[in-house]
């Protein structure tokens, strides 16, 4: 795993936050919004709370559950609880501190287990998968633009150049309840997973993302740097955050789920 976040060329501070923990097989990326500095408060709370709650739940999971075959129901409930906790803290903080009023954050998080990944997301931060030559967006944006595309009012290409890209229809912390979307995917050795904020995906089309990851997938820190450099070269109009995960080999549940993923993913900062 490797990740990097960058302010970009236009914004004066960074409201994105990332966290990745190879020993848990866990990735978290958030893109905050709100008044001055409130966005970075929201994204910081989200990444910290989700990481802490996921770690606590994983460490408390009974051994018989960890070796019960499909862990999807367990991972599903863990992710929902972690995001609900983050939502509650962000919402409460916004209610209690006037400078944080209205803050919220997008969120995309993934947990790897038993040759699978569970991905939960809220908003328009994304997860992609590169498998061989196939590059696929695994999340679907919760945004006004995506609703326009789904309704046939805009083509995906028109949406890339629309003036209202940043209008999300879901976010963490803007209300007492958050609606999280979850999906599970089978993982194969050789897969590369990209988690990113819209500061990357708005600047570079999927074809460019795929090409750059293919070129640099053997050096994930360099791949992160190149993706951010290219997004800045295209204007860097927003904060840019990237986390990349390369799966080195299978990790069936018999291997000891959540016990040091270092050999499966490789680690780099």
TrEMBL record:
<feature type="domain" description="PPM-type phosphatase">
    <location>
        <begin position="1"/>
        <end position="247"/>
    </location>
</feature>
<dbReference type="GO" id="GO:0004722">
    <property type="term" value="F:protein serine/threonine phosphatase activity"/>
</dbReference>
<protein>
    <submittedName>
        <fullName>Stp1/IreP family PP2C-type Ser/Thr phosphatase</fullName>
    </submittedName>
</protein>
<dbReference type="InterPro" id="IPR036457">
    <property type="entry name" value="PPM-type-like_dom_sf"/>
</dbReference>
<dbReference type="InterPro" id="IPR015655">
    <property type="entry name" value="PP2C"/>
</dbReference>
<dbReference type="InterPro" id="IPR001932">
    <property type="entry name" value="PPM-type_phosphatase-like_dom"/>
</dbReference>
<dbReference type="Pfam" id="PF13672">
    <property type="entry name" value="PP2C_2"/>
</dbReference>
């Amino acid at each position: 795993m490797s990740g990097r976040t960058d302010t970009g060329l236009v914004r004066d501070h960074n409201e994105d936050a990332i966290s990745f923990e190879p020993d848990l097989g866990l990735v978290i990326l958030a893109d905050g919004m709100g008044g001055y500095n409130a966005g970075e408060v929201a994204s910081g709370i989200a990444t910290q709370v989700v990481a802490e709650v996921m770690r606590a739940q994983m460490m408390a999971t009974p051994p018989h559950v960890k070796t019960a075959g499909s862990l999807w129901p367990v991972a599903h409930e863990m992710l929902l609880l972690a995001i609900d906790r983050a939502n509650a803290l962000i919402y409460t903080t916004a209610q209690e501190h006037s400078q944080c009023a209205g803050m919220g954050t997008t969120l995309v998080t993934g947990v790897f287990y038993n040759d699978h990944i569970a991905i939960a997301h809220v908003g328009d931060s994304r997860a992609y998968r590169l498998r061989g030559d196939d590059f696929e967006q695994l999340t679907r944006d919760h945004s006004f633009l995506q609703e326009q595309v789904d309704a046939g009012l805009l083509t995906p290409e028109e949406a890339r150049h629309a003036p209202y890209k940043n209008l999300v229809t879901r976010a963490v912390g803007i209300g007492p309840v958050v609606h999280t979307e979850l999906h599970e995917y089978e993982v194969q050795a050789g897969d590369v997973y990209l988690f990113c904020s819209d500061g990357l995906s708005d600047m570079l089309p999927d074809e460019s993302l795929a090409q750059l990851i293919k070129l640099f997938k053997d050096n994930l820190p360099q791949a992160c740097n190149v993706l951010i450099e290219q997004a800045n070269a295209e204007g860097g109009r927003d904060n840019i955050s990237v986390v990349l995960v390369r799966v080195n080999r299978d990790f069936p549940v018999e291997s000891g789920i959540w016990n040091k993923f270092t050999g499966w993913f490789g680690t780099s900062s």
